[in-house]
Amino acid sequence: MKKKGYEGFTAFKHHLKDEQNTTINFSNVEKIDTEIKSSILKNEQEVIRTLNMINTGVIEDAIQKIESSERIIIFARAFSEFIAEEMKIKFQLANKYCELHTDPNIIKIMSQHLKKTDTVIFVSLNGETEELIDAAKNCYNKEIGTITITTNKESPLSMLSELVLVGFKSEISFFPDYEVRSRLPLSVIARILLDSYVIRMNKHHENKKLPIN
Q1: What angle do the packed helices 184-209 and 34-53 form, to 10 degrees?
Q2: Are 132 and 124 in contact (CB under 8 A)?
Q3: Strands (E), the chain
Q4: 63, 91, 102, 175: least CB-packed within 10 angstroms?
Q5: Nearest CA to 165 among 193, 184, 141?
Q6: By residue range, what is the domain housing residue 180?
Q7: What is the CATH number of the domain that holds 110?
Q8: How far apart (Å, rounded) are the C-alpha atoms in residues 5 and 2?
Q9: In percent, how much of the chain has pLDDT > 90?
Q10: Structural domain count, the chain
Q11: What's the domain of life for this entry (predicted)?
Q12: pLDDT class for 203, splitting at 50, 70, 90?
């Protein structure tokens, strides 16, 4: 076991248990209906491909921009609002001032009255929502820092944003008649960004507490 890099047999057993819990049990998947199986694999693909697409340099830049900002303003619409709401609460729990706006008219007006000490975060699956694009144009013209979380790096919103975090969107939709595609990639990116921000802030606080020799 030690030659394999484990402290002992117990550590090896824990490794196997963790590995079992973090990979899909295909023996169980094979037993279920084909359509349900495709749903499970669709979600797995969105998560894995999103993780592979994450640019750590952009995450680092986003953390620094958030840290140096007086206010974080989040703009989101439709189903992306749920992810934005979670982000707002987590920023507030981390003692970072944060507002969330989801009303189209408020988004347009609010984006005209921002300060250069603010940072705007857009959460948008396709990056083609009209009021978000208008807000991004206002931010661009006023030189307001912007971060966009999306699955479309070629969208008008992405093109107007300073930093863009892109996830993978599956083409499979089980609600083809409605625009209710999965926001799972956006959720993965948002959680990584918030977790990374909190980790960095905690390290800064720890370093400040260290005695100077």
Answers
A1: 40
A2: yes
A3: 71-76, 98-101, 118-123, 145-150, 163-166
A4: 175
A5: 193
A6: 56-207
A7: 3.40.50.10490
A8: 5
A9: 64
A10: 1
A11: Bacteria
A12: confident
